From TrEMBL:
One of its GO terms (biological process) is protein ubiquitination. It comes from the Eukaryota. This is Seven in absentia family protein. Residues 31-56 have a biased composition (Acidic residues). PROSITE patterns: ZF_SIAH. Keywords: Metal-binding, Zinc, Zinc-finger. GO terms for molecular function: zinc ion binding. E3 ubiquitin-protein ligase that mediates ubiquitination and subsequent proteasomal degradation of target proteins. E3 ubiquitin ligases accept ubiquitin from an E2 ubiquitin-conjugating enzyme in the form of a thioester and then directly transfers the ubiquitin to targeted substrates. It probably triggers the ubiquitin-mediated degradation of different substrates. Residues 108-166 form the SIAH-type domain. Residues 1-56 are annotated as: Disordered.
Amino acid sequence: MSRYSNDSEEMSEESTGRSRNHHIFQRLGVEEDESTEGEESDTNSYTSEDESDDDATFSSKDMLECNFCYKSLRFVVFECINGHILCTSCCSKTNSCVICEPRTQHSHVKVACDYEPYGCKEVVNYTQIYEHVNSCHFSPCLCPQINCSFQANTTALGEHFMINHPLRIPPFKYDQIFFTFVRVKDDVTILQGISDGELFVITCKTQYIYKMLSLYHIGPSRRKPEYVFEMLVLPHEKYSNCILQLKSEVVNVDDRIYPSSSAIYVSYDYFKDGLLSIKVRISKIGANP
Ligand SMILES: [Zn+2]
Ligand SMILES: [Zn+2]
Ligand SMILES: [Zn+2]
Ligand SMILES: [Zn+2]
């Protein structure tokens, strides 16, 4: 185990974030990797603020992966104030670090969210990072405008959309019915909430002799639906008894790929001069109307 041969040397170093971090890399064998570029920048991501914190904070969970199977460590990891890591079972056997002074404490290793570059400030216990990442509000979404490659969290995306892509339909108010229309030649019609800038898309796909209308929210696809919508196609003079209406949860889409979802099937003769008039209401789940 030559990898650990300079442990005692490490011990004499000041207990700064840099040396702690360095030590963890060494323990995990990262230094033996041929490429050390990632390590350099990760080490440099420590700031003086981090040094006063007893918890180790990593800028990416990728650093904590097994060097044998390359899978991320999923069990609870504990770390003493000098950065010596212990697994859960050993931590329960000893209250002190086996390498340094027996008085030192162990704490949960914490990691920054994957979406830190997109604005998430969360620093989460390592064991909870997957759960957090899967429901993180800052997970980036692709702009719904065809041919636009802009990606951002939903708030920044709303601002981007307002500046760069003029809306065909004025922003709507939540919980209120509004009239709008879709064009037979448009695959997507983009809507924007007036109060929060959130983006929604009405898709109009061709299915046999029908047009299939659905509504989606632009948001992290791993998040549960946060909105419900109602859609009503205004009656056609020929089929005035036929009411085409739909109420459903709004599926989140973050990559312009709209999965099959609840839809209204409309025959082409509902379109007048290439336009179909509809009534829509969108509400936040759990909000009082
Ligand atoms: Zn492994
Ligand atoms: Zn220790
Ligand atoms: Zn996050
Ligand atoms: Zn865009």
